[in-house]
Write a structure and sequence with these properties.
- The chain is mostly helical.
- The chain has a domain of 65 residues.
- It is built from two helices and no strands.
- The radius of gyration is 24 Å and the shape is rod-shaped.
C-alpha cells in the first residue's frame, strides 16, 4: 500500500511540474503565434511588390535601389514583429534557471 501511495505522489508531482511548464510556455507561445501571424501578413503584402520589381540586374546601383524600395515600403513597420519572433525563440533556447 505504501508503494502505491509513493507512486501516486510521484505521478501527481510530475503532473504538477508539467502543468507549471505549460503555464509558463503559454504566454510565450501566444506571443510567438501573434508575431508569426503578423509576419505572414507582411510577407503576403510584400510578395506582390517584389514580383513587380524589374528583373534583377548585375548593376549594383539598380540592385541597391530595388532593395531600398522594398525597405521603404514597409519593413520598418514590421521590424518589431521580426524582433519579437526572434526574442521569443531565443528566450526558449536559453537554459532554464
Amino acid at each position: 500500500m505504501e508503494q502505491l501511495k509513493q507512486q501516486s505522489d510521484t505521478v501527481a508531482k510530475l503532473g504538477t511540474d508539467r502543468l507549471v511548464q505549460l503555464e509558463q510556455a503559454l504566454p510565450m507561445s501566444m506571443t510567438f503565434k501573434n508575431a508569426h501571424q503578423d509576419l505572414v501578413k507582411w510577407f503576403q503584402e510584400v510578395e506582390p511588390m517584389i514580383a513587380e520589381l524589374a528583373v534583377v540586374s548585375i548593376n549594383q546601383d539598380t540592385v541597391k535601389k530595388q532593395q531600398d524600395k522594398i525597405k521603404v515600403r514597409g519593413f520598418s513597420a514590421y521590424q518589431c514583429f521580426v524582433l519579437k519572433v526572434g526574442s521569443v525563440s531565443m528566450a526558449r533556447l536559453e537554459p532554464q534557471l
